[in-house]
Amino acid sequence: VGNPGTNLGFCEGDCDDDSDCIAGLVCYQRGKGEAVPGCVGTDSDNNDYCVEPPPTSSPTTGDPTKTPTNSPTKSPTASTKAPTEKPTALPTTAKPTAWNELRLVGNPGTNLGFCEGDCDDDSDCIAGLVCYQRGKGEAVPGCVGTDSDNNDYCVEPPPTSSPTTGDPTKTPTNSPTKSPTASTK
């Protein structure tokens, strides 16, 4: 996005420290050619990118025992939450919410990434994204979360139909040609 950038979203760079990233993300300082955790693509310039912070170990609750015990305790010492649903047989297709959750960056914002707003037109979005102008209460395609203020967000452009190749015929034909035709430009 910039060198250095500010208010950078997930997998956006170039950041110099955590303050360049939006809240909840950290600046991943990488070595030459090192992959960026959670992101795809390559960057031969070795820029640094905003990512989710690495997981931390579970915090301990209560005071530790002064000496080790030989047998386990009979009841849990910390609150544990068991899963409420059985695993599915097939993988889910939902994208991780880290990068597709609605984020209001500015009003109006500029240089906005995927699912970031508030944009007013496509020029407010980074290259390859468009400003999705939505109606009252309308969901933002490809993004999760809610926004009761009806801000507009940058998203991937909608798919287009396959492009035609060559010049179209002036009048319809009754049967297909036996071999492909080529444009003679």
Q: Pairing-aware structural class of the strands and helices?
A: little secondary structure
The whole-angstrom Rg is 25 Å
* Helix and strand element order: EEHEEEE
Largest sheet: 2 strands, antiparallel
Q: Which strand-content bin applies to the residues?
A: 5-15%
Using brief descriptors, characterize the structure shown.
6 strands; little secondary structure; single chain; two-stranded parallel sheet; 185 residues; 1 helix
Task: Give an overview in words.
Helices cover about 0% and strands about 10% of the residues. The chain has about 180 residues and is mostly loops. The strands form 3 sheets. The chain has a two-stranded antiparallel sheet with strand order 1-2. Strands 3-4 form a two-stranded parallel sheet. Residues about 75-85 and about 90-95 have low confidence and may be disordered.
In short:
It contains one helix and six strands.
